């Protein structure tokens, strides 16, 4: 099956700093999502981005499908950005079978 | 608020108990999912229902029994669980309705989870 690896596993930032999170996947995929899981366990979807670049406020994401990776950029980080960031991929379209990465745990210090 | 609710939020049960987890989505979606999240492990897909029909079952032990009575509700019935089943159980939904579905219709929306402890 597809392997999904995220790096770095842990990241500590000072408030206001920028960061880049990476998601590598071992096979071609049809769908890719980025999620943020807050300290209370709630997963919020950030981007649906099987290819290309999207931006939403201080967050942006780029997926280069041909090279099998996706990047999540966080600019001017805030303490509320703390939590775990997951990418999830779906190999086929409409298979409903999403494979999640191991996540990047981010802590933003005030 | 994602439009997906789960109850209870916390559950402590003994190994001989029977309990059920409930998920409800208010998004008009056609697909619903159960995931298990254990400490230090990625989310594991357990079950998927599309239009109330089970389309995915990831070799989950029979002590977990899903039920999808309609497209808005999903249950996970638990019986004779083991301590290693303690985890966060997450429900999700997506709009997708068929295996040819593509695009953002596959975007998943998650509930807040039920934190289960098995004693």
Q: Would you mind describing this structure in some detail?
A:
The complex is a heterodimer of chains A (110) and B (119). With 110 residues, chain A is mainly β. Chain A is built from no helices and eleven strands. In chain A, the strands form two sheets. In chain A, strands 2, 4, 5, 9, 10 and 11 form a six-stranded mixed beta sheet that branches. The model of chain A has no long low-confidence stretch (mean pLDDT 94). Chain B is an all-beta fold. Helices cover 0% and strands 54% of the residues of chain B. Chain B has strands spanning 4-7, 10-13, 18-25, 31-37, 44-50, 53-57, 64-70, 73-79, 87-94, 109-110, 114-118. In chain B, the strands form two sheets. In chain B, strands 2, 4, 5, 6, 9, 10 and 11 form a seven-stranded mixed beta sheet that branches. A four-stranded antiparallel beta sheet of chain B has the order 1-3-8-7, with no helix packed on it. In chain B, strand 5 and strand 6 (53-57) form a beta hairpin. The mean pLDDT of chain B is 89.
**Which class do the helix and strand fractions of chain B yield?**
mainly beta
Quote the beta fraction of chain A.
Answer: over 45%
Question: What's the main sheet of chain B like?
Answer: 7 strands, mixed
Query: What summary fits the major beta sheet of chain A?
Result: 6 strands, mixed
